[in-house]
Structures are given as C-alpha cells and as structure tokens.
C-alpha cells in the first residue's frame, strides 16, 4: 500500500478512451508510475463531452481499474482538457522600474507578469496556462532571471493558453460528480510534451503532436520554453469516417479495416491486394483494394500534418525544431506515419516515449498513454513547487480549480 500523500493521478477524458494513470512521488520528488486504468469512451466527440451519463460510467470503470492495479484510493486528479475552443498565443508585458537605484526586485517581476496576463479575451474564455518564456531588460532579451539587475524597463514574453469557460466546466463538474476533486486542469498538449521531452530536447527545439481520436494537439518548445500550442478538430476518427464514405462500408467496418490493413503510405503490395469484407455469417459482401484504402488514409493524415506545418511556418518556428518532431496518441500507431510526417516537415520524426519517467514499462512505452502520464508529471512538479513556495498558489478560476500560474512556468519549461 502506498502513502496517499504522495499519490498523483492524471485523468484524460478522450474521444477514443478514458485513461487514468496513477503515480507515486518518490523521495527525490520524481514521479513513479504504479497503475493505469482505461475504458472505451462512448460519450465524447472531438474532445468534448456530449453524453454526461456515458462518460461518467466509463470514467468509473477506468478509475476502478487504476485503483486496483495501484492498490490506492484516488481522491483527486489532474484533469487533461482539449477541444477546438482551446487556443494559444504569445504576449508581452512591460513594467517601468521606478526605484531610485533602478534595481529590479521580485515585486517588479510580479508586476510585469501581471501586465503580460492582462489580455483581452472573449468574455466567455478563461486562461488555462500562462507560461513565462524570458525577460527583456532595457531591450536586451533572453534574460532568465532579472532580479538584482539594473534597468529602467522590464519586459516579459509569456505564452497564454485559453479556453471556453463553460466547456471546461462541463468536464470539471462531471469529475466532481464521481466524488473526485480536480487539482488542476491541464491542456493535453502540454501534458504530452512533459511526458516525452527531455530538457535537452526542449532547449534544441521540438514539436510534439498528439494524434487522438477526435482532436490533434500540438506544442512547440524552443530555447527551453513553450513557444506555440494549438488544437485541430481533426484526428483518427476522421480517417475512419473517410474510409466509410470512400469505401462505402459501415463505420464499424471502416474502423476494423483501418486497424487491420491501414497505412499512412501506400505500399506496392497493397496496390495488388484485395480485401474481402464479410458479414456476421462469413458471407462476402464486397471486395476492397488495399491500395485505395491506404490512399484515403494517407490523404487525411497528410492534411493534418500539413495544417500544423503551415501554422508553424506562419509563426516562424519551423527552423527552430532542431530536436525534430515527436508523435504520440492512439493514432500515432498507424504504420508508415513517421515517414509520412518526415515528408511533410522535412526533418527527423520519431514515435515519442515517456523516457523521463520511471514505472510501469507497459504504460511508458505506449504512445496513447503520453497525455495521462504527462498529467502525473505535471502534478509531481506542482507538488514540488508548492512545497518550496507554499504561498504562491492562491489564485483560482471561478470553479475553484487552480489555474496554471507564471510562478510555475519556469519549472514546467525546464523539467
């Protein structure tokens, strides 16, 4: 039996699955994965809840499995959130140093941070994360810690991730309906990046793409900090829908064909292969060319990668990805996905693994668990920060769920 005070749970309510990962914080503050539970998701579409009762039932099943494996009782979770309503952008705040000696203090840092977060969002939106990137002192950039320096003007660059308040509340309320507390909400893309990237890869520059069932999240790190983040409401389910339409088969049959014969690239062997689809009695319904199946898949997956590549080109980050591209999520298992992505991004692409965390190898090696594992790591980092600075985390969003504060940004970027 583990010490409940050191238990951290991450919950991902995804379109394809609901996943709970349980970790224990070790003596040195690092997380160790000790349990995992999952259930097929029946009430989520494009990352958002559409059937409260079904999701609650599936969530209880995943929780029970995770608690049994870890031999703990889960009382609270770090909740991953996604959806097309979530967006991210960079913002700069400025503060004038008014002290006689012009020495920058911690109060000046807090003031410039508040100014950077004083942004105009739509009335229905709220900030999920405000991540500090770096400071400028009198126009000189790339300052990591300005306290003690002398200057007349202090500026800070921050990355803001925001989302629709009511849509975020739907997930929070559902979780609380199962008698669980929500420690914090965390953008799924940031959680996945936390699980996959080392400090060196964050410094070099890396793109993490999480290909789920209903949404595709992506996050860019460069210079050790988050530079860009976004969500596409296009993912694995859209591939299945394309196959159902293009091959004129039921959606359930299209999903099975995707899993058994799918590929992100059209192979020469597939062009010559015929697949016979049968009914429950084993009678042949129709014949499908495997090459056609793979071409339909390839076009949709290429579109997803191209949308991300175009977005990175627009914000000028393509040349900063020296560590390459990391893929995760359930749809990352599609054969041929890595070479397809390499063709689009023209750089090294690899299937991500949670190599910075210890614990159950069966979970750490699976790309579909990256988000939930990252949520546990997020919680571990937050616990360490709270112990070091217990008075710095008082602000909450209206739900009572703590929002990600700038004071935690440096630890997130560097851990």
Can you put this structure into words, describing what you see?
- The chain is of the alpha/beta class.
- Among the domains are: about 85-160, 2-Layer Sandwich (Dna Ligase, domain 1), CATH 3.30.1490.110; about 200-355, ATPase, nucleotide binding domain (Nucleotidyltransferase, domain 5).
- The protein contains 13 helices and 19 strands.
- The strands form 5 sheets. The chain has a 6-stranded mixed sheet, with helices on both faces. A 5-stranded mixed sheet has the order 14-13-12-17-18, sandwiched between helices.
- A hairpin with a 3-residue loop joins strand 1 and strand 2 (about 15-25).
- Helix 4 (about 190-195) crosses helix 12 and helix 6 crosses helix 7 (about 250-260).
- The longest helix has 26 residues, at about 290-315.
- It is globular, with a radius of gyration of 22 Å.
- It starts with 6 loop residues before the first strand and ends with a helix.
What is the gist of this entry?
It contains 13 helices and 19 strands. With 415 residues, it is an alpha/beta fold. Among the domains are: 87-160, Dna Ligase, domain 1; 199-353, Nucleotidyltransferase, domain 5 (2-Layer Sandwich), CATH 3.30.420.
Biggest sheet descriptor: 6 strands, mixed
The percent of residues in helical segments reads 25-40%
CATH first level of the domain at 199-353:
Alpha Beta
Number of helices: 13
Radius of gyration: 22 Å
Mean pLDDT: 89
Q: Care to count the β-strands?
A: 19
Helix/strand-derived category reads alpha/beta
What CATH architecture of the domain at 199-353 do you see? Answer: 2-Layer Sandwich
Overall 3D form: globular
Fraction of residues in β-strands: 25-35%
Report the uncertain regions: 390-407
User: Would you give the CATH topology of the domain at 199-353?
Assistant: Nucleotidyltransferase, domain 5
What order do the strands of the largest sheet run in, or round the barrel if closed? 11-6-1-2-3-19
Give the CA-CA distance, first to last residue: 28 Å
What's the CATH superfamily of the domain at 199-353, by name?
ATPase, nucleotide binding domain
């Amino acid at each position: 039996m583990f010490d409940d005070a050191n238990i951290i749970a991450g919950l991902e309510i995804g379109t394809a699955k609901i996943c709970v990962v349980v970790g224990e914080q070790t003596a040195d503050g690092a997380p160790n994965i000790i349990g995992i539970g999952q259930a097929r998701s029946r009430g989520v579409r494009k990352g958002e809840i559409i059937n409260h009762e079904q999701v609650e039932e599936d969530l209880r099943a995943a929780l029970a499995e995770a608690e049994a494996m870890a031999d703990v009782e889960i009382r609270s979770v770090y909740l991953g959130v996604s959806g097309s309503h979530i967006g991210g952008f960079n913002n700069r705040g400025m503060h004038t140093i008014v002290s006689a000696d012009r020495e920058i203090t911690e109060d000046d840092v807090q003031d410039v941070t508040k100014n950077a977060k004083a942004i105009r969002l739509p009335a229905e939106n709220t900030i999920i994360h405000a991540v500090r990137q770096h400071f400028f002192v009198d126009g000189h950039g790339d300052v990591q810690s300005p306290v003690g320096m002398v200057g007349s003007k202090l500026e800070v660059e921050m990355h803001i991730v925001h989302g629709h308040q009511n849509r975020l509340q739907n997930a929070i309320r559902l979780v609380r309906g199962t008698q669980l507390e929500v420690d914090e909400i965390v953008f799924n893309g940031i959680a996945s990046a936390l699980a996959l990237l080392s400090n060196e890869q964050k410094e070099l520059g890396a793109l993490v793409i999480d290909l789920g069932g209903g949404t595709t999240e992506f996050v860019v790190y460069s210079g050790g900090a988050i530079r860009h983040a976004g969500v596409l409401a296009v993912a694995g389910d859209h591939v299945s829908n394309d196959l159902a339409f293009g091959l004129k088969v039921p959606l359930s049959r299209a999903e099975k064909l995707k899993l058994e014969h799918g590929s992100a690239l059209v192979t020469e062997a597939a062009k010559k292969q015929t697949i016979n689809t049968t009914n429950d009695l084993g009678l042949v319904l129709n014949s499908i060319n495997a090459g056609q199946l793979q071409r339909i898949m390839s076009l949709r997956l290429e579109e997803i990668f191209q949308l991300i590549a175009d977005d990175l080109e627009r914000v000028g980050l393509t040349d900063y990805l020296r560590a390459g591209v990391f893929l995760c999520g359930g749809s990352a298992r599609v054969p041929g996905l890595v070479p397809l992505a390499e063709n689009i991004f023209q750089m090294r692409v690899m299937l991500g693994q949670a190599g910075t965390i210890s614990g159950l190898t069966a979970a750490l090696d699976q790309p579909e668990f990256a988000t939930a594992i990252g949520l546990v790591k997020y919680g571990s980092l937050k616990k360490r920060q709270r112990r070091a600075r217990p008075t710095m985390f008082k602000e909450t969003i209206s739900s009572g769920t703590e929002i990600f504060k700038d004071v935690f940004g440096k630890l997130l970027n560097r851990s």
